[in-house]
Protein 1
Amino acid sequence: PSFKLVMSFLKDMTVSEEAIRGVIQRNVERAEDLAQVYLNATETIRMFENDEGLQPAGYAFLQEFLSNQSHQPQHYGDNLEGCGLENETAVRKAFYLLVRRVVKVANKILDSDGERSLLSEHTIALILHLLCIVWKPKDMGLICDIELPELLLKSSLLGIGPSADSKNYSALDH
């Protein structure tokens, strides 16, 4: 939206400088708010973490957090044009911190040897929902860091049944 406004300003001087400044200011505020939301979500999930994954309250928080995410753009950095490199970096770092935290929870659940509860399986579904965004080339370092393909593979084996061993990939090597 802000790029179109700038182009309109350059082509047609009827768009005021104040309108452009207003869009940029809103994007700065949005970026600051978004970074803080991701940081708060990360801390909340950390507080509700336990040895098996998440306490029920953590699951409820994650579910509510993600239900509001449907109103967000497809990528965490979309619609932040003009907010400044520092703000874009703060949003990216905060989102990455959140992703690392939920992946840690997911790995606790997926690597546990015992019977998984329905709550644990739903938690995995919610985490996969969070990870279901449009990833951009600049995110590839994080994808490798969190071993996203391995996480997706382990998650897919979750529903196969008790005989499936998510740590044994030999059947998939053929």
Protein 2
Amino acid sequence: SLLERCHQEFQASFSKIVDRLRQQQVEMDQPFSFNEVCRRLRGRYDVRWLQGECLHAPVFELENAPWGDFVRLALGVDAEELWRGVVLSQYGSEVQNWHRDGSHLFDGCSLPAHCVTVFVPLVATTAEM
């Protein structure tokens, strides 16, 4: 399936990222943050640097994606994708507290929604997860 191919493609890409981090002597058991990848908690990585075709497939583009109508309804017809990435939570990773994925546009005032985060699991999930 497409998602299985995306998962395999990401695993290969992430392996290259880890190799590069180790070459740069990044301590993999400590939090770190780069434009391409960050680690805040044990076993959890946010990866923005993606190689390969699958994760950039047309089906994931906003105008084709199953969530496109929802995003346009929430944000307007001129909504744009800001970035695409993968959140990796490895077996045994630390539990992450609830948090927002973006900041407010301005301090001290509440405005209508200006961004939406969409998660697409690349592995099988269950209700218990």
Protein 3
Amino acid sequence: GHGPDMCLMIQTDPTKSDQLLSDYLYDQTAEYQQLALDSNFIYGLRERCLDPSEFGGYMVDDSVYCYEVLKSLKIAAGRCSDNTTLRKFLNSKAESWRGVGARSCNTWHIKSADGIKLGDPASKLHRPYQECSRK
């Protein structure tokens, strides 16, 4: 059928029955999920040893992330001139990200996320956990 109850199915393996796209994407990203779980941020939260300044840095990163998602959704909505439903949906999602980003910026006293330049994000995923293990 069509409408809100419709699920996107994808045939990924002829030996399997149809698989939900969300299940397929989950399966295909297992490596990245594990990297996230093993990241310094998650480890530090779990072990209660994340430095407060480092936590703040992650929150500033999140503010920039929200800003970038908002920009991407607005660009995508602008390209949907022939699909009013999709354009409205993307604009609606952009506005919800605007709210999340505004709350984050307000909490961390950030005037404008577009002025923040991030470093190498991969370096945060591969930091050793030695600081926590010493405590």
